What we know:
Number of strands: 0
Structural class: mainly alpha
Number of domains: 2
Mean pLDDT: 82
Shape: globular
Helix content: 55-70%
Largest sheet: none
Low-confidence stretches: 1-28
Number of helices: 10
Amino acid sequence: MAMLRELGARIVVTNIMNDSALVSAGVEKSLYSSQKNYRYFDELKYSTAYTKEYLKSHTNEERGLAEDGAAVMGLARFNWLLEKSRHSLNGVFSVADIELCLNCFRGDLLSPERIRTMASSICWELDIDLDEYGDSEIAPLIDNLRDLSRHQLVAFADALEQMWHRGLPAEKGIAEFYGELGIELISSK
């Protein structure tokens, strides 16, 4: 039975690698031709260059590391980094902060560019000038976002996406779901 699961996992991974955006030669065609990806077209488009560059710089066919292997290693490293970074978000954000962010981004995928500009996107969504946010009720949230390191921003964005795509459909509360991710939210701000 374990052997069948392993074989099934290999087949799934192989199919994902062959049919998805992770194969650089077909990245754009695969991403943009799928009807189910239309909602995420821009974010996928803006992320394609990062994917192509990673695969180009990490693939070495002569030494036996094809694009699919490089993609698996990249995703494994990324997931490891997320797991190790989440704890640094403990006690930084409240449930109200997460609710506001969920309402602002509404299930969007957050490309590297969108992650970098999260604070200004929230201000824009709420019609608050970024230069004048200090007098608003969201000032602590914006300050916290602006103070995060890059790896913390990525972990924060990933947690938002997971909450939207997995937590909400499973009808989990924000604090409960974030707790499962290893992020403790503060009770109020």
